Amino acid sequence: MSISPNVPTPQESYHYESTGTPRWIAVLFGVLIALMAVLGYAGYSTQTRLSQDLAKQQDQDKILVAQLDQANSRIADLKSKMEITTQRVGLTQSELAQAKSRAESIRKEQQTSDEKLTAQLSQVKQESEEKIGAVATEVGGAKKDIEATKTDLEATKGKLERSLGDMNVMSGLIARNHDDLDELRRRGDRNYYEFTVQKAKTPQRVGPVQINVSKVDQKKSKYTMVVFVDDRSIEKKDKTAGEPVQFYVKGASRMAPYEIVVFDVGKNQITGYLATPKEGGPGAAASAPAPAAAAQAPAATPTTAPTLKQAGKP
What we know:
Layout: H1 10-19, H2 23-54, H3 61-87, H4 93-159, H5 178-187, E1 190-198, E2 204-206, E3 209-217, E4 222-229, E5 232-240, E6 245-247, E7 258-265, E8 269-277, H6 282-287, H7 291-296, E9 309-310
Parallel strand pairs: 5-9
Antiparallel strand pairs: 1-8, 2-3, 3-4, 4-5, 6-7, 7-8
């Protein structure tokens, strides 16, 4: 009886069954499992680190979660395939090469994902720095505006200066125009009565006093006026615009005289203000008109001067 060359003899069959799976395949399979575990652990560690670094970037949360989910899905797929591979007894070289190639592909994809995330982090950092720079520029501009306002205020304060009055008493702060006078009013140190008095024969009431302008010289910015207060008439002759013209009223402190400052001499009129002490005093009360008289002649309008005795110039 002839034996076919492809059919093993009983002795060969027994020898084949007793040999079993080669040991190098089992060792190689174990190394592969260890390699896959290391790669999986490395990938998981990388993902965790990236997740912690990018947690502060709220605008990138959705992108990171999507990429991490994708990586976890790939790792889970790999683990599933590894479990299937471990259950297979006859692992061939071709299958082992495929598994190794798949692991390498996953590693490269994970590396590419890491590089992409790093680039996104750099872009977000650059955008944040640009925004911070823009905010710093705006703050710098606001600071310059504040400094300019401060400079303007200092310039306004510089315009408000003191001067020696015609009675050799140091005046209060002097206004040179209407805007300066508004600044003095805001300070509230004294009472201020702004006026424009025409050259006329009759005096005009300005606050608690009456003023009569008898002469003006527009070219030289000089004027002559008579102030009526406390039943007295006080002549101020050939005074200059911007010069504090001072006089006292009854009961007023000798250190706080009334002051008239004219900051514009026109053709037939003078424009300026009267400054009186803030606390008033008996002199101010005595020189104020009675209620009936006030109703008949409002402030800053011409009124007939009472019969007054002339007083010498101070």
